[in-house]
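Chapter review: from sequence to fold.
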Amino acid sequence: MPAPVRFGIQARLMIGIALVASVLVSAIGWYWVRFEAREQSEALQHRQAQMAGLVARGFAGPVWNLDASAIDSLLDAVMADPEVQSIEIRSTGLKVPPMVRTRATPPVEPVVREFDIQHEGEVPGADSAPVARARLVYTREQVVERVARTRDFVAGLLAAVLLAVLVTSYVLVNKLICQPVVALGKMAQAVAGGDLGASVPVERTDELGVLAQQFNTMSAQLRDSSQDLRRSEERYRSLFENATEGIFQANGRGRLLGLNRRMASMLGFASPAQALGLATRLRRMVQLEGPEYKRIARALIRHRLLQQVPVLIATREGRQLWVELSAHIVPAADGQGLRIEGMLTDITQRRLAEQELTRHRDHLEELVAGRTQELTRAKQRAEEANQSKSRFLATMSHEFRTPLNAILGFSQLLQMDDSLGGTQQGKVRLIRDSGEHLLSLISDVLDMASIEAGKVRLQPAPLDLHALLDAVCDAVRLRAEQKLLRFGVDLDPELPYRLVADGQRVRQVLLNLLSNAVKFTDHGEVVLAVRVQAQQPGNTRLHFEVRDSGIGMDPIQMARLFQPFEQVSDEARRQGGTGLGLSISQQLVRLMDGQLRVQSEPGRGSVFSFELAFQTVS
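The token string follows.
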């Protein structure tokens, strides 16, 4: 504790105020007394000068006439002034003793004035001549008395003022400073004693009032902080005691400092106190083997942190447990030495489950190996079957097309024979149409098989786009006119003439879309539109669109539209089709980096569109 001071703040303030007041009052008093003494001295000299003038005028005649009785009367009159100490008249030119009057008491600070007594002649204008020399002595006794009385008055007045200042300062300092400071001190003692939240009434708005308000705020903050700290400590204590994991603290040498209930229960103790009472060393408590303990200790010292290290320990009863250790080293709370904080998680059941899982995994690996062999054999069989299918399709393609070509060729020759009648020409035309239809069905099946096998390759080459579009339109226009449909072609004026593309595949897609449009449209129109979507030097992107005013489709039908062998129309319109055309067209458009899209509503027609990028040829 600091040593108690000899003077409190009130005493020091009063001493300071008293010293300042004393210096100020003393200076005022000194100036006042000096001013009064100077005024009195000047007044005395003035009176002495007046007296000297009276003596010079009054004594001139009697001294000239040597009138002794008049001179004595005048001397007595002069001595009647109490401030006159003595007067001496010495005649000039005559050897007569001087005429002197003096008081018996000694003078106080005498003031001497000597002057001549002049006698004016009877003739006007004649020069006056000194007849005597006068010596007038004044005493300052009355002046000194007056100055002393003034000094005493000033001293008393200043003493009263100083006393009033001291009393006033004592009252004001005690009320304005000491009492609030004492109240703040008592509040500080209460806070230091644990009464957090103590406060003092704020009665003023001056500096001490602001200080009191700040003290109250500080006390309230200390109370809130203490409550928060207490709640945090309670939460921490609750987490520590009720944690589902074992938590411990030990010093740098492995001496156990504390543990929670879960760890005590895990190790076979009834309570943490019992565990601390029976075993103070962490190694003994967990019954860890020496080499394993040293290995963990070296790793902890090296890394200062261990995370989820599996360790086999034994409980108090000797039962073995697999635990997961996480620990770290932190400075001790007192700043001296180190402390180990750690957590143990019982993973015995998990280890058993892992062992069981390992057995199942080994068994599963055996099953997977066996199934892999089966799948390998099945894959080989599938590949062999696929190769057989490819050979079969290649053979059938040749075997189907060879007789069909012969049939189509002979039918064309028969159509050129003018000797055949109309009925015979109709039958020949029927043979040719059926053959061409069969050839298209075979081509669709073979194309689908080639696409599924991944054997379709694009063969881009320079072509005349306008000629390709004219050929496609000519192939479909006749069928549209036979159904009394308006067949329209809408081409962009900026459409390039020559570009690089697989003309056969583009023609196949457009023919399929236009044929379907004519097939499913009973009245109205079928339109082919081609627009330039984007164009750069050497490249162009075209938008192809086939729209019709046919029967349309609902969303369910559109969802199945591009699936192989799917036909979403009615039975009457399914005749003569395989359901592969749109599926093949979608696959071909995707091979050309596009996507075939459809928009349709029942009874309002359909719009099929796709976009493709091409290189242009100048």
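Two observations follow directly from the output. The radius of gyration is 68 Å. Confidence is low (pLDDT under 50) at residues 572-576.
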